[in-house]
Design brief:
The chain is of the alpha+beta class. It has helices spanning 2-19, 183-188, 196-203, 207-214, and strands at 32-33, 40-42, 45-47, 74-79, 93-99, 104-109, 115-121, 124-129, 138-143, 148-151, 157-161, 167-173, 181-182. It is 18% helix and 29% strand. Residues 61-211 form the Cupin type-1 domain. Disulfide bonds join 30-47.
Length: 222
């Protein structure tokens, strides 16, 4: 019987390691500071003395509209641990996404967080692609005001404004710093560039097309 309990304990431990991306805090808060001389290093940041923590450490003012006058017609305004230092060790963040008509938040991934998105205004066409293991299935939905959609951690996903006016959405993410990898930017705008031979073979196209794509300006909307 003890062996059975031990095996269950190991399974529980393995599950917690496999599915916990931001470690659970063991204190009320651990407000990040940039002064490495007077803090304790916890989960990627140095932490302020708890006795010196104030309400402003948990506050962000005026999450207003983003400027969508850019080639993508969208603007992502992230609120991570870099914007609210009190998010350190709490395992959450959010972003506001503004869309001009036909604006696109292009295919991208968040390597450290699942995203749940709610539409505040407008109509969005959204979707994500499952992994090779699941045969790269595409899951899409048209969302209207008040609708909610989930993008699983690490999977490529996108949102596009398919309405006639502006659109606004709020995304919550299960990490204080979920990260973002925009697919086109990473593949064709890397520094230094990925070999055009590698990309040409990967996409099964002529190297001249790859060279053309690598010469383009790959805009970041965040």
């Amino acid at each position: 019987m003890k062996v059975v309990y031990f095996l269950f304990a190991l399974l529980a431990l393995a599950s917690s390691i496999a599915f916990s991306y931001d470690p659970s805090p063991l204190q009320d808060f651990c407000v990040a500071i940039n002064d490495t001389r007077s803090g304790v290093f916890v989960n990627g940041k140095f932490c302020k003395d708890p006795k010196l923590v104030i309400a402003e450490d948990f506050f962000y003012s005026n999450l207003g509209p983003g400027n969508t006058l850019n080639p993508l017609g969208s603007k992502v305004t992230p609120i991570t641990v870099n914007e609210i230092l009190g998010l350190n060790t709490l395992g959450i963040s959010l972003a506001r996404i503004d869309f001009a008509p036909k604006g696109l938040n292009p295919p991208h991934t968040h390597p450290r967080g699942t995203e749940i998105l709610v539409v505040l205004e407008g109509t969005l066409y959204v979707g994500f692609v499952s992994s090779n293991q699941d045969n790269n299935r595409l899951f899409t939905k048209v969302l209207n005001k008040g609708d909610v959609f989930v993008f699983p951690i690490g999977l490529i996903h996108f949102q596009q404004n398919v309405g006639y006016g502006n659109a606004v959405a709020i995304a919550a993410l299960s990490s204080q710093n979920p990260g973002v990898i925009t697919i086109a930017n990473a593949l064709f705008g890397s520094n230094p560039p990925i070999s055009d031979e590698v990309l040409a073979k990967a996409f099964q196209v002529d190297k001249n097309l790859i060279d053309y794509l690598q010469k383009q300006f790959w805009y970041s909307n965040s």
